[in-house]
Structure formats: structure tokens, C-alpha cells
Specification:
The complex is a heterodimer of chains A (about 500) and B (about 250).
Chain A: E1 6-7, E2 25-31, E3 36-37, E4 42-51, E5 57-62, E6 68-71, E7 82-83, E8 87-91, E9 95-104, E10 111-113, E11 117-119, E12 137-140, H1 157-160, H2 198-213, H3 270-274, H4 285-297, H5 311-315, E13 346-347, E14 399-402, E15 417-425, E16 452-458, E17 461-466, H6 469-473, E18 476-481
Parallel strand pairs in A: 3-12
Antiparallel strand pairs in A: 1-9, 2-4, 4-9, 5-8, 5-11, 6-9, 7-8, 10-12, 13-18, 14-15, 14-18, 15-16, 16-17
Chain B: H1 4-9, H2 11-25, E1 33-46, E2 51-56, E3 59-65, E4 69-86, E5 89-100, E6 103-110, E7 120-139, E8 145-167, E9 181-197, E10 202-212, E11 216-217, E12 231-232, E13 236-247
Antiparallel strand pairs in B: 1-4, 1-13, 2-3, 3-6, 4-5, 5-7, 6-7, 7-8, 8-9, 9-10, 10-13, 11-12
Classes of the chains: A mainly beta (about 500), B mainly beta (about 250).
Chain lengths: ~500, ~250
């Protein structure tokens, strides 16, 4: 599957877009390059190259800036690149693949600028193309990466330099390649101790924010760089990607099949979303949370191993076990009914602490004597508990599980969705313009200053969303906490 | 800019020059009257020809002009003799030289000949000079009006130069420009008009000519691996002239 080539399936989309202003070789950012690197850092950028020239070509990368090289075969959706005088790869007409750039700051000048440039012949640069958006423009700092933990909360260069894909694993049909088990930078290991997990929580939310910025779609995939065009897949199928339209009021794209926050220029056009296949990159809610934890903290003691991407098992439900935390057998002293090896961390109690090693909440942490766990669902299965008054007890990075139908909002016993608690508020920590619309609460999703925000992969992909009563809050099944692993 | 070597080697140029000398020498004949004309006018070249060029193996671009015509000032002169053929009929024979201000060609490059890939604009110029052996057959009525037919043939020297590409898109890269290139080729002109006597010595006239300016092509770009460039197999022009003619004796 190396160097996989995928058809564009242009018949699936609007033919009139053929005459949109596009280049024959469309180079569009999939993971934006960093804006700056310290002298001892390795930066990463991933671009998609699409051949729309009408012919099959062997393409070359021309004029790569000093310090920039190509990572060969980091995953099945990447171009099958060989290196001669130039990096080169073959790409059939109407096909596309990814290229991963490695930016070695120590080998670069004061700035890494321009490209990547794709040519048919790098020595004779006719009909070459450059990125439509976010070309390389990296300032190289003369100093080394500071050891300060605070300076590295949102520094993911070490992780991004690793493969996102676990190339040693077989591809699961439609779902794609499993995610890699990331290692953690030894220079940041000390940041994980001494602050009761505060740095790790901030990093986790920063990791989620990083992927929100990449504007992924919602797809039934394991990793963000798996490209699989599957228009026949339904919402129940592996490989499904959301074809939902933009619901952002006032958007020039309102009602069209294009991501809600595309700006209409560069690579952020309906053409790029649809026909250039950007809508076919993304992850579903629970694979997103599993990936984000692994991306932010993989290889640390906080993660004994990446938890599962199956939402029910990640929540703690098992096969044929669709109860909620407060309904567990044993009431306030459950016996681990919602505890499986693939679950994420521990269930959270009402006062904000995690349950103990016996999966129990202490008496002083309970909502009442019969409802120890943070959940809208009481021990009788009724959604009566007051979540809103206790949100201050949640911690950034907490995983909130929802038990309701994602289309209708109807209550369900099984966990259907998971979101990341950010601890951020709309209009205060995150601009209102960055809060995504969603269709479940058409009138309530619109952010008001001070609304609590979660990040989840839903509707049109990973985004900040308002923690609305109508869906998320009133259907809160339970909360699990990974950071810290043990009770504080 | 002007390639003297090409001029010297031009057989047509020699022919035209010899023809002019022959005419001048013949002015000693009693029935031949030396005559000279100065022409000013407009030269409207048809440049709306789509051109294709293979620049690399399997890479062919189209150069789609943005306008059909380029209109420039035209100037030239004629030196020859005039004779009477029959009652009210006369003939002028001589040598002529014309040049136009450079024609401006501009348009869009269609990469891979696909109109969707039109983000690069191009422009260049063609400077055309012509040496012609020219004859004018005219008729006289009311003693001072002279409608005429004119024909000429000779050599054109067309210099295509100043090729330039521009783009407003961040994703397109312009190529190293095609070099300037001088091309000489056969040219002819056919026209009609009317001269009016101002005095016994001077005439003024207006006329139209259809001119085949011949071939014009750009030189190669250092980046291409072939020899094909944007070119005109035949550059045609409509010329609208005002002529001032004087007898020299």
C-alpha cells in the first residue's frame, strides 16, 4: 500500500468547478509548517500533491531550501518518493498523495522560505507549482530549544517528526492504518512531574487545539493522514466522512458542502474541500481523543498504552454492558462494572476527583449517597442530575462521554460520543469566531461570551464547540480522567 | 536590435535595392517622371492566433492572446518613377520601406493546453520592417483625382522580443523568458486608395492595404528542451495610410 494513489472521483462533485482558478499540480497544506524553529529542532510539514494536469507524470521537488528533506514512506497515503539528483515520484493524472517535509534547523539558514515546488523537470522549471497556501516560511532561531516547560506546552515538533501511522500494522479496510505509538521527548519528561498534571493537561488541550487548526473533517478513520475516498459509505460504515454542509450563519458557503471555517481563498475553497479530497481526511470522536492523548503524551507514564478508539470501550462500557456510571451494580460502591483494560483513565466523581483503585468515589465526593459519579444520569437511569453547577470541578483534558443519538439527540443507553473538556470559555479564551456550528442544537450552539467550550470531532470535524445543555450537558453519561492517573 | 547580418544576407533586400536603382537610372527617359512618397498611418495586425508550443517532452502549453488586433503607428516611404500607360491611366514603379511601431501581443498561458490553468499572463512585442518592390496602377478623372490599386512584394524583418510572464497567484511560477528572435520572410501587400492633386507637383492620398507581414517567432527559453516557441506563420495586417507624393522634377 506504499505510495497509494487515489482517484479524485470528480464525477462525484460539481463539474462546474473545473474552471476554478487552480494549478495543474495542486499543493495544499495538510499539516501546516511551523513558523519558527530553534536551532536544535526538527520541524515538520505535510502537503498534499494532486496531479490535475491531464497527464501522468514523474514529478520532482525543485529548489528545496537548505535543511529541508523529504521523509520517505511515512505512511500509506504518502507519495512513493525516491531520491536521485532530486526527490521524485510518479503521480498519475487525477491522483494525489502526501509529502512529509523534515526541516532540520541546524542545517538551515536564518529562514527556510519557499516551496515545496513541484516540477516535471527540476532542471527545466516549466509549469512548476508552489503551495496554494502556507508555503514554507520558517524563521530559524540561533538559540537552542529552551528547557522551560512553559515554553513547550504547545511544541509538538518532536512528535510530528515521528510517523503518525503505525506502518508495521496492516491496514484495516476503510478505517485505514492504525495510529503510531508516539515516543515522548526526553527533554520534556521533567515537565510531567511536580505540578499534579497541570502541564500535561495544558499540553493535552494544546494538542487538541493544534489539530483543530488543521481543519480536519469528521471521518471514520484512525489517523489524520489516511486518505480514502469512499463516497458510498454511510454514517454506519467504516471509512465514512461527513458530507454535511456548512451551517455557519452568514458564511458565503452557508448550505454548501465545504468546511464551515474555510475562507474561500487559497486552498480553503469548496473545490479543495470536495474535489481535492480534503473532506476525506479526519477522525471520528473517539479515535480523535485516543489520537490526541497519544499525540500529546504518548510514551509517558501517564499513558500505560494508548486507550482504545472504540467509544463505548473507551468510556468503560463492555460488550452487552450499556449501563451508566451511577447505575453500576453496587450503587455508590461499584465493583468495576465500567472498568475495562481499554478504557481511558478513571471515572470522575462529583467533586472533581477520580475514583479510587477500586473504582469507587469517596463519600465526600458524591453527588448524593446513591450517585457518586459525575453524570447527568442518576442511579435509576433518569437524566436528572445537575451537571451545570459542577462544571468547575472538571479538569482540562477530561473526557466527557455522551449517551444520545448524534442526529436526533434522543437518549441512548450506550455511549455514542466523547468530547474533550478544555476548561476554556468562549469569547474569553477562544474567540467566538472559532467556535464551530453543529446541527444537533441549531439554536443553542451559537456561542455567548463565557460559555464553556469542549473540543470534539463531530459534524464537520474537530472543533471548539459550546457545551450546550440540549445535547452535551443533559446527556452526559460520565467523565473519565487520564491526567493524573491516580487520585490527587 | 536590428540584425544587420540578416539584412545583408537577404536576397530580397538586394532585389528591391537593385529594382530601386534601376528605376532611378531610368528617370533619364523622357516619359518617366521620378516620384517619391511619404506614408503615415495605422497598422492593425491580427494577433488573435492561438499558439501552441511543446516546451518539454510531453509538455505543451497554449498561448491564448487576449485581443485579436494590435494597432500601431505606421510610417514609410516610396521612391520610384511614374509613367503614362494610356489615356488617363498611369503606373508608378519603385521601392518602398515601411515600419510599424512594435505590435504588443499579450494573453494567457494555458498550461498543458487547459484553459483552467490560466494563471500566468504573457506579453511580448513584434517589431516589423519591410522592404518592397511596389507598383501603383492609377486612373485619372476630373484631371486631379487618381484612384489606384497598389501591389508590392519583398522581404519582411520581424523581431519578436521582450517576452515576459506575470502571475498574481502564489502557486504559479513564471518561466525564464523566451529570447528575442529576428525572422525574415517573404511579404506582400495589396491595396487601393485615391490620390488627389494639390498642385501640379504634389499629391495627397489615402489608402488601404492588406499586408502579409510574414513570419514572426520568439527565440527559445533557456529552460525548455525543445525548439518550439510561440510564433506566427503569417502575420497579417490592415494598413490605413495617408500619403504625400511629390514629383522630383
Amino acid at each position: 500500500m506504499k505510495g497509494l494513489r487515489l482517484s479524485l472521483l470528480t464525477f462525484y462533485f460539481c463539474a462546474s468547478s473545473v474552471y476554478a482558478a487552480i494549478p495543474p499540480f495542486m499543493i495544499t497544506p495538510r499539516i501546516n509548517p511551523p513558523t519558527q524553529l530553534y536551532h536544535n529542532e526538527i520541524g515538520t510539514a505535510v502537503y498534499q500533491v494532486a496531479n490535475r494536469s491531464g497527464q501522468n507524470f514523474n514529478l520532482q521537488l525543485a529548489d528545496l531550501p537548505a535543511g529541508v528533506s523529504i521523509v520517505t514512506n511515512p505512511g500509506p497515503s504518502y507519495c512513493n518518493i525516491t531520491q536521485g539528483k532530486y526527490y521524485q515520484f510518479s503521480l498519475a493524472n487525477n491522483s494525489m498523495c502526501l509529502i512529509k517535509l523534515r526541516i532540520n534547523a541546524a542545517q538551515a539558514g536564518s529562514v527556510v522560505q519557499g516551496g515545496p515546488k513541484i516540477c516535471i523537470d527540476a532542471d527545466h522549471q516549466i509549469n512548476c507549482n508552489l503551495p496554494m497556501q502556507a508555503p514554507l516560511n520558517v524563521r530559524i532561531l540561533s538559540s537552542n530549544l529552551p528547557a522551560l516547560c512553559s515554553a513547550n506546552i504547545s511544541n509538538f515538533n518532536y512528535t510530528l517528526a515521528q510517523n503518525l501511522d503505525k506502518t508495521s500494522e496492516p491496514i484495516v479496510p476503510n478505517w485505514g492504518i492504525p495510529k503510531n505509538d508516539f515516543t515522548f521527548s526526553s527533554s520534556m519528561t521533567s515537565c510531567l512531574s511536580g505540578d499534579n498534571g497541570e502541564w500535561a493537561r495544558q499540553r493535552l488541550v494544546a494538542a487538541a487545539n493544534f489539530w483543530v487548526q488543521q481543519k480536519l473533517n469528521y471521518c471514520h478513520h484512525y489517523v489524520p493522514d489516511w486518505l480514502h475516498v469512499n463516497p458510498a459509505a454511510t454514517e454506519a460504515d467504516a471509512g465514512y466522512c461527513s458530507p454535511n454542509p456548512d451551517l455557519m450563519p452568514g458564511s458565503s458557503y452557508y448550505g454548501q458542502r465545504v468546511r464551515w471555517n474555510y475562507n474561500g481563498s487559497g486552498s480553503e475553497t469548496a473545490y479543495n474541500w470536495q474535489t481535492n479530497n480534503y473532506m476525506w481526511y479526519g477522525m471520528d470522536c473517539s479515535n480523535f481523543t485516543s489520537f490526541i492523548y497519544n499525540f500529546a503524551l504518548g510514551g509517558t507514564d501517564l499513558l500505560s498504552g494508548p486507550f482504545t478508539g472504540d467509544v463505548e470501550w473507551q468510556a468503560g462500557q463492555k460488550e452487552n454492558t450499556e449501563t451508566s456510571p451511577n447505575q453500576q451494580t453496587g450503587g455508590p460502591d461499584p465493583k468495576g462494572e465500567l472498568d475495562n483494560d481499554a478504557a481511558a483513565g478513571r471515572l470522575v466523581c462529583w467533586n472533581g476527583d477520580t475514583s479510587d483503585s477500586n473504582n469507587e468515589c469517596a463519600a465526600d465526593q458524591r453527588y448524593d449517597t446513591l450517585n457518586p459519579y459525575f453524570s447527568a444520569i442518576d442511579n435509576n437511569g433518569h437524566r436528572t442530575l445537575d451537571v451545570a453547577s459542577n462544571l468547575e470541578n472538571l479538569q482540562p483534558g477530561d473526557l466527557l462521554y455522551i449517551a444520545a443519538d448524534l442526529k436526533s439527540g434522543a437518549v441512548k443507553d450506550s455511549v455514542t460520543h466523547v468530547v474533550i473538556w478544555t476548561g476554556k470559555k468562549a469569547g474569553i479564551d477562544v474567540p467566538l469566531s472559532q467556535v464551530a456550528p453543529e446541527q444537533i442544537c441549531p439554536t443553542e450552539w451559537q456561542p455567548q461570551v463565557g460559555d464553556w467550550l469542549i473540543i470534539d470531532s463531530h459534524y464537520q470535524g474537530a472543533d471548539y464547540r459550546v457545551f450546550t445543555p440540549c445535547f452535551y450537558m443533559n446527556n452526559l453519561w460520565g467523565v473519565r480522567r487520564v491526567i493524573p492517573w491516580t487520585r490527587s | 536590435m536590428f540584425n544587420k547580418e540578416v539584412v545583408i544576407k537577404s536576397r530580397s533586400f538586394h532585389l528591391v535595392s537593385a529594382f530601386a536603382l534601376l528605376i532611378l537610372a531610368s528617370t533619364s527617359q523622357a516619359d518617366l517622371r521620378p516620384v517619391a512618397s511619404l506614408s503615415l498611418g495605422l497598422d492593425q495586425a491580427y494577433i488573435g492566433l492561438k499558439q501552441n508550443a511543446i516546451l518539454l517532452s510531453d509538455v505543451e502549453n497554449t498561448y491564448m492572446p487576449g485581443a485579436n488586433f494590435s494597432t500601431r503607428m505606421l510610417s514609410g516611404g516610396f521612391l520610384g518613377v511614374e509613367t503614362t500607360l494610356a489615356k488617363n491611366w498611369g503606373l508608378q514603379l519603385g521601392a518602398a520601406y515601411y515600419q510599424s511601431q512594435p505590435f504588443a501581443i499579450s494573453g494567457q498561458v494555458y498550461q498543458f493546453m487547459n484553459p483552467a490553468y490560466n494563471s500566468i499572463n504573457y506579453q511580448y512585442q513584434i517589431f516589423s520592417r519591410r522592404f518592397l518592390a511596389e507598383s501603383k496602377l492609377f486612373y485619372t478623372f476630373y484631371q486631379r483625382y487618381h484612384p489606384y490599386l497598389v501591389a508590392g512584394l519583398g522581404e519582411a524583418f520581424n523581431y519578436a522580443y521582450a517576452y515576459q510572464e506575470t502571475t498574481s497567484d502564489v502557486y504559479s511560477q513564471t518561466m525564464a523568458p523566451f529570447a528575442g528572435h529576428m525572422q525574415h520572410s517573404f511579404t506582400y501587400a495589396l491595396g487601393t486608395g485615391m490620390d488627389i492633386d494639390l498642385t501640379q507637383r504634389f499629391k495627397v492620398g489615402a489608402g488601404y492595404r492588406y499586408v502579409n507581414l510574414g513570419k514572426a517567432s520568439l527565440g527559445t527559453s533557456p529552460w525548455q528542451t525543445t525548439s518550439q516557441t510561440p510564433s506566427f506563420g503569417h502575420l497579417y495586417a490592415n494598413e490605413f495610410l495617408l500619403q504625400f507624393t511629390s514629383y522630383l522634377n
